Amino acid sequence: MIGSKQLDSASAKIGGMKSYMLSLDDFKSMMGQPDVRGIFDYLNDHTEYKRVLWDMKGQKVHRGDIERALYKHNVLSLEKLLHYLNEPYKDFMKSYMKKYETEDLKLVIEYIAGRSSLTNIESHILSRDSFSKLDFNELLSQDSLVKLMDKLSDTPYYDILIPYVNHIDLKFSFYVEMVLDRYYFRQLAAAGKKLPDSKNNPVMELIGRNIDLFNLEWIYRAMKFYDMSKEEILNFVLDGGHKYNFFKIKDMVYNLTPSKFRDYFKDSEYGFLFSHGDDTDLYMERRIERYLYYKSLSLYREHVLEFGRIMGFVLLLEFEVKDIISLVECIRYKLSPAETSKYLIRTIEVVE
Amino acid sequence: MAIEKLVMMNVVGKNEYIDSFVKEILFMENVQIVDAYNEIDNFRFTINVTEKNIKEILGFSSLESGMKFGSSDEFVKKLGLIREIFGDEFKIDKRYLKGDIDIDEVVKSVYQIYNVLHKKHKILKLYQEDISQIDQSIKAYGFLESAGVAMKDINNMEYFNYVLGTLSKENVQRLKRNYGNITAIVVHVGSDDDDEVYLVISPKDLERETNRLLRSLSFKTIEGLKPEYQKRPEEIIKWLVKKRGDFQEKVDILENEIEKIKERFREESNYAYNVFNLYKRIEEIKKLMAFSEENFYFSGWIPSKMKNHIVEELSQFEDIIIMFNEDVNDPGMSPPTKLKNNWMFKPFEFMIKMYGMPSYKELDPTPFLSLTYLVFFGFMFGDLGQGFVLFLLGLLIRLKGIKLGGIIERLGITSMVFGLVYGSIFGFETLIPALWVKPFHHINTILITAIIIGVAFLLVGYAYGMINSFKAGNYSNFALGKNGITGTVLYISILMIAIASLTGNRIMSMKLLVSIVVAAIVMLFLKESISKWVKLKNADNEGHEEASVVERVFEIFEILLSIVSNTLSFIRVGAFALNHVGLFIAFESLAMLIDSGIGSVAIYILGNIFIIGLEGLIVGIQVLRLEYYELFSKYFEGGGIEFDPAKL
């Protein structure tokens, strides 16, 4: 695959885009800011994020606004990359970006079901025409879930959601979230199959690992905290794991209890997930992200002129946004830099 | 051939005839309504103080904005009623509304129609719902036909529940892979589109677990199985089909009746539809009026020439006071722009509006734009035959109702005229003699002529610009601006220097010209200071005096640069005239290479289509560029609002 002409321009483009990403020093400087406004100004004065933040200058900036703007930056960057990709990579990238569509759809459903009363809801929508065929303005203007479903009738979402909209109870949001996530990963895997050399593709491997980790986290948490039958837990497992397929997961669900996870995974690659005693539950998500972050980093570094480099970049971009958001949160609660670094995905040595 | 003169009309009338008054205004289709309350608030709506007007003047003190009264909701609702029955069948047409309207009577008649229809509609809907439910039941029992049991056996099970529904292929897999642990009997009974249909039988004690399990699999229940149906599925289906037939018959009869009633009342409803629409508009317009206890106050822009006609029309109303305010120089008043052009230039208004509406006080750029557009296009694309094809195309497009067609038609005509000048028909240069020159044989002549035409038009552009600044009262720009007198003098002097050094013909001494140029540049540089010094009025005080020296140096540099580039830009006009011939020569060579009768003809035809389509488009765009960039920058400001009279 090396030297494939198709990816030359995209590789060159991400080379340029990568140079705009934040350095560790940037993060350190931001950790030293006294308040949210300080971070906002720093991002505006020193980073590429000014593209989405500049318009907010001089106004009262809310944490939520920054978060949305950063994600918007992310979407815009991926959109820019789309121009440089051809099939099947382009389709894959669009499938990947569907995550924003499914998230937006969750938001719309919550909003119309009356479970969320965000003001200015349109501004929360991140989907764009380049990868989403849904008309979110139209969807948002519906006043009932039945009408919403009517508008979705030509999309794959209709069949997925229709069994749930007929009776809405306390678990409605949960089901919507689960089935949409399941759909997202299914269509992503389907798009991945069309990539050349899909069996040994490092990108698909990473996504498979991502699914593994999500599945482990899900069954661990569901068994520990939720009132659910084993069958139910199993039905919400995502397909397409790299190391653990459905049957292996099934074995775990029927044979393990949460306390046994640690021993069971002791010698496996994913042992880090459960090996932290009391901290296990608290930092599980961050640990998964840190693992994926370093995997993405090596994906980016080891593959030159290959799709792996591009996806590595895409993932890194996303982790950067997540880190900035955590950082903002930490500053808001006045955590010390040492404490803050615990909540970040990347490792930052802080000398106190 | 200009921007039409407008005047502000202020009217005070009696509230008793307000509806007919507004109706009259709507029918005129020549009044752009302005918020009267706002006019009064700003002291532009004044009444002569005479004894006769005393009540109207006193009314000012108890004035209220129509915002509070005008409410079109009621009529929107009534329009909704008619639409519910007739759909979007009716069109708005003012012919229906001539004569007096008894609104109460119309409302009554609509309610009558509606009452008759509404009941039947409701029954019809009920039947239709029943039918769709029966259809569902037929479908559901269809899946159970093969079971060969009477439904009463399943319905009356003591310890088990049953449910019918579908699963997607993906979820079927999930179910299968964990069959062993599921607390229900799951029977595959058929498929529905892409999904598989299952009958799930589970113990009543485990109902909660089963339901949750099914939900986690996105199990979609098929409705329509009813506990009161006790027979075997095939018998139930037979019975349901018969019942459905009976219902369908009733539906048909009802639909027929409704159709007949609709037919009977169609005329009447159409009238009512129009009346309600009129009243809806009247209410909307009332929001822009002001009211006192007895009087209404109304303001609107009208074309000046319609003044007498409108006064005549409105004098039918008793005690009406009509006043005109022609002081358009009041800075608070911003009259809309109504372009008025003859048939020749009218289509080009489209291009003006694309750039921006001229403001009321500007010269209408349409005639100049049209003439220059036509000349440039013809010059670049001169061909008798191809022009004719363009003309026909434009005609066709215009008749289809697309505005651009009118422009293409006219471009076709100038192309034909220049075709005669160049002696070119469908690209062939030998068939007819040229009235002037053949472009390819006189390349320099063509290029130089193009620049001369360009310079001439630029000078007209400067003149337009000066007139516009003068009319706008911006005397500083008029005298000292880069598009004002100073700028024009600078341009002409530089031109003369260029001519002198190229041809050796000296009309004025070089020294004099150079000193004029230097003087002009200095004046441009010191524009703000000089204006301040001689106290020239600058209408749109832009505050340029603060501009730094560096900024002004660059501004001067830009002015000089654009004088050169704008002028040379017109070379393209000549270049495209040559290009036009060149392109055809290419096709001609191809045709000669083929050297067979039919083949060559085919190439000639293809070539002509190519030239008309592609080159025609390119030339059209190039001219637009010359207009928008080189010429408009000299004189056109834009920023006006289009005259938009109230209509039904």
What keyword list fits this structure?
heterodimer; A: mainly alpha; 17 helices; 0% strand; B: 648 residues; Alpha-Beta Plaits; 4-stranded antiparallel β-sheet; 22 helices
Question: Would you summarize the structure shown here?
Answer:
The complex is a heterodimer of chains A (352) and B (648). Chain A has 352 residues and is mainly alpha-helical. Helices cover 63% and strands 0% of the residues of chain A.
Characterise this structure.
The complex is a heterodimer of chains A (352) and B (648). With 352 residues, chain A is an all-alpha fold. Chain A has a domain at 89-194. In chain A, 63% of the residues lie in helices and 0% in strands. Chain A has helices spanning 8-18, 24-31, 36-46, 50-53, 63-82, 89-112, 136-140, 145-151, 156-165, 172-193, 202-225, 230-235, 246-255, 261-264, 280-302, 307-332, 337-343. Chain B has 648 residues and is of the alpha+beta class. Among the domains of chain B are: 2-70 and 287-325, Alpha-Beta Plaits, CATH 3.30.70; 151-230, 2-Layer Sandwich (Alpha-Beta Plaits), CATH 3.30.70.100; 344-472 and 540-635, no CATH class. Chain B has 22 helices and 12 strands. Chain B has helices at residues 18-28, 36-41, 54-59, 73-86, 103-144, 151-155, 169-177, 207-216, 233-286, 307-314, 349-355, 366-380, 384-399, 404-422, 443-471, 475-480, 485-503, 510-525, 527-534, 549-568, 571-594, 597-635; strands at residues 2-3, 6-14, 32-34, 64-65, 160-167, 185-192, 195-203, 220-221, 290-291, 295-303, 321-325, 339-340. In chain B, helix 4 (73-86) runs antiparallel to helix 9, helix 12 (366-380) runs parallel beside helix 21 and helix 12 packs antiparallel against helix 22 (597-635). The longest helix of chain B has 54 residues, at 233-286. At the A-B interface, helix 9, helix 10, helix 12 and helix 13 of A face helix 7, helix 8 and strand 8 of B.
